[in-house]
């Protein structure tokens, strides 16, 4: 096992490791000064000159849960990238005109007979290549070196020591902290390669052919490698020659062109949920095809209190779109009756949604496409067919929960974006801030925040508790600081005492997390006074609840949602 994806805990501070640059702002300033001295002119990041091509790199997904995290780090430097399967032929990649390739990590061992390898074109096209962890092992094996299981499994923080100068480590100290997660090692280098760096337990921690091929045993994409962003920036700028000219505005212009091409003369219906993803997708499509888009808002009864009313007002009045309202509360609750398994809940919600959209589309006339606000964390956790080497975490109702047979084709313009990127696009489109900054909400709604069967009574209990959580979080001014905050109605009931009487009520769990992209998350250290106020209000205002607990689990090993 090369890459361990069971969890990445936050390391303690390591005083004395960093000897130069102290934060991202200083890194950026230092790099700009160095560029000015070298005579490199800054590239505007708001627009591209007419006809200019944006820089691009390709990320080969070898099964890592963090492939899209690599993509996110690349895009932070305004370089466009796409994550593709390790089986993707050059013909599908060529239109991107890539300036480089990054090989992701993965759970396999490169010495295994059936281990996924990079496409042969990766090393035949003369492009710069960066292999990360398992990606480095693939590079070594394919170019004539040897990889083998190590005697010591290296997991966690390590100190990297550079053994020679390199453009990949420019502006960095000769010793720096990095994050390791591997059990294999490079036993023999390919011809023409040399060692760039080592750690106490890994004699071959970074390699190069001295020109365009580089391999790293550690993970520069995770926040636990403090200089990881600089290393990736050096690869993009120094090795690949990227200038960083891709932005949210450029994504919008490219996406609208693709949307127009895909839609043609057809019509589109868009599934509105009230969240930022569907709002941005709808706005993007609306700007591209205008009135040929009809938005459908389905009230499934699984939304937060007052959310259907707020959603309709935001989209109909503020965004000036055609919106069809469908009350399907009874239909969803009927289908969910007696269902306990969370995966079944997700699939049922997805199935009913699609059938309703097909019915509404038939009323509109000939409709060709169903638009959804699917984003990449939905895709990676559901393990869509284009990620054969990865493990499924859970299905999402709009990805893994979709029925096999659909009369509508899917239009998902945000499928490759992270939530923070979606928000950037939303702001660039001019969406209201209260829409853009809405906390993520699961597609299956409150059905996966009720442990056990979903009933009308249990929904009302959860809506009451959740309303209090959100109200107190907003009053405390923490709404935007938190990635998500919500209540969960557990299947547990416990004995309590209220007014000298015995009670037997529900246990409600409160969940609040901080995150950058939902791929990893830390539980939020909320003030005790705030937690106390939330608990007091819930047990006093929601009669069926007599106990409140706070969830202090991070992701991984837990997920953000309970189901």
What is the fold-level CATH name, i.e. the topology of the largest domain? Answer: Rossmann fold
Query: Quick check: average pLDDT?
Result: 84
Shape: globular
Q: What CATH architecture label of the largest domain applies?
A: 3-Layer(aba) Sandwich
Characterize the main sheet: 9 strands, mixed
> Helix fraction?
25-40%
* CATH homolog superfamily of the largest domain: Class I glutamine amidotransferase (GATase) domain
Total of helices: 15
**Strand residue percentage:** 15-25%
CATH class of the largest domain, anyone? Answer: Alpha Beta
Low-confidence stretches: 3-52, 383-403
* Strands in their spatial order, largest beta sheet: 2-1-3-4-9-8-7-5-6
Structural Rg: 25 Å
Number of domains: 3
Number of strands: 18
Structural class category: alpha/beta
What do you see in this structure?
It is globular and about 75 Å long. The strands form three sheets. A nine-stranded mixed β-sheet has the order 2-1-3-4-9-8-7-5-6, sandwiched between helices. A five-stranded parallel β-sheet has the order 12-11-10-13-14, sandwiched between helices. Residues 3-52 and 383-403 have low confidence and may be disordered. The protein has helices at 24-37, 67-75, 90-93, 134-142, 228-239, 248-263, 276-289, 307-318, 329-336, 342-364, 376-382, 419-428, 433-436, 456-475, 528-541; strands at 56-61, 80-85, 101-103, 129-132, 146-162, 175-188, 194-198, 206-208, 213-216, 268-272, 293-299, 323-327, 369-371, 409-411, 484-498, 501-514, 522-523, 545-550. The longest helix has 23 residues, at 342-364. It is built from 15 helices and 18 strands. Helix content is 31%, strand content 22%. It has three domains: 24-239, Class I glutamine amidotransferase (GATase) domain (Rossmann fold, 3-Layer(aba) Sandwich); 251-436, 3-Layer(aba) Sandwich (Rossmann fold); 455-550, GMP Synthetase, Chain A, domain 3 (2-Layer Sandwich), CATH 3.30.300. Helix 7 links the parallel strand 10 (268-272) and strand 11. The protein is α/β, with parallel strands linked by helices and 563 residues long. Helix 6 packs across helix 7, helix 6 crosses helix 12 (419-428) and helix 7 (276-289) crosses helix 12.
């Amino acid at each position: 096992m090369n890459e361990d994806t069971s969890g990445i805990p936050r390391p303690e501070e390591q005083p004395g490791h960093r000897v130069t640059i102290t934060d991202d702002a200083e890194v950026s300033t230092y790099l700009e000064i160095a560029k000015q001295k070298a005579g490199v002119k800054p590239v505007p990041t708001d627009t591209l000159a007419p006809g200019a091509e944006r820089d691009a790199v390709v990320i080969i997904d070898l099964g890592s849960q963090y492939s899209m995290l690599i993509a996110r780090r690349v895009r932070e430097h305004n370089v466009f990238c796409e994550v593709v399967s390790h089986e993707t032929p050059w013909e599908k990649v060529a239109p991107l005109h890539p300036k480089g390739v990054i090989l992701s990590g993965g759970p396999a061992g490169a010495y295994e007979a059936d281990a996924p390898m990079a496409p042969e074109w990766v090393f035949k096209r003369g492009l710069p290549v960066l292999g990360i962890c398992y990606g480095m092992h693939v590079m070594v094996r394919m170019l004539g070196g040897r990889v083998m299981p190590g005697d010591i499994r290296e997991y966690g923080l390590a100190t990297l020591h550079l053994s020679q100068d390199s453009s990949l480590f420019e502006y960095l100290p000769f010793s720096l902290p990095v994050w390791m997660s591997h059990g294999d090692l490079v036993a023999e280098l390919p011809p023409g390669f040399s060692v760039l760096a080592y750690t106490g337990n890994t004699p071959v921690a970074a390699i190069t052919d001295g020109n365009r091929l580089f391999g790293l045993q550690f993970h520069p994409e995770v926040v636990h490698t403090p200089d990881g962003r600089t290393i990736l920036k050096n690869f993009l700028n120094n090795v690949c020659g990227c200038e960083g000219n891709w932005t949210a505005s450029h994504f919008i212009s490219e996406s609208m062109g693709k949307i127009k091409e895909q839609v043609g003369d057809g019509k589109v219906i868009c599934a509105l949920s009230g969240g930022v993803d569907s709002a941005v997708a709808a706005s993007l499509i609306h700007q591209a095809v205008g009135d040929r888009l009809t938005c459908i808002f389905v009230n499934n009864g699984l939304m937060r209190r007052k959310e259907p009313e707020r959603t309709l007002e935001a989209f109909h009045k503020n965004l000036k779109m055609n919106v069809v309202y469908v009350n399907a509360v009874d239909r969803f609750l009927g289908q969910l009756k007696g269902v306990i398994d969370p995966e079944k809940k997700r699939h049922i919600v997805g199935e009913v949604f699609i059938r309703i959209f097909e019915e509404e589309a038939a009323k509109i006339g000939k409709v060709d496409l169903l638009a959804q606000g699917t984003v990449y964390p939905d895709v990676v956790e559901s393990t869509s067919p284009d990620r054969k080497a990865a493990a499924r975490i859970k299905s999402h109702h709009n990805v893994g929960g979709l029925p096999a047979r659909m009369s509508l084709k899917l239009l998902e313009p945000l499928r490759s974006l992270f939530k923070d990127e979606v928000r950037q696009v939303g702001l660039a489109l001019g969406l209201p801030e209260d829409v853009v900054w809405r906390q993520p909400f699961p597609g299956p709604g409150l059905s996966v925040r009720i442990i056990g069967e979903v009933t009308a009574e249990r929904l009302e209990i959860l809506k009451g508790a959740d309303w209090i959580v959100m109200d107190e979080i907003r009053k405390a001014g923490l709404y935007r600081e938190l990635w998500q905050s919500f209540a969960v109605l557990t299947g547990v009931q416990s004995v309590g005492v209220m007014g000298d009487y015995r009670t037997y009520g529900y246990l409600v769990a409160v969940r609040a997390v901080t995150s950058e992209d939902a791929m990893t998350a830390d539980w939020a250290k909320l003030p005790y006074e705030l937690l106390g106020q939330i608990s007091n209000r819930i047990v006093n205002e929601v009669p069926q609840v007599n106990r409140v607990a706070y969830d202090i689990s991070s992701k991984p090993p837990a997920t953000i949602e309970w189901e």
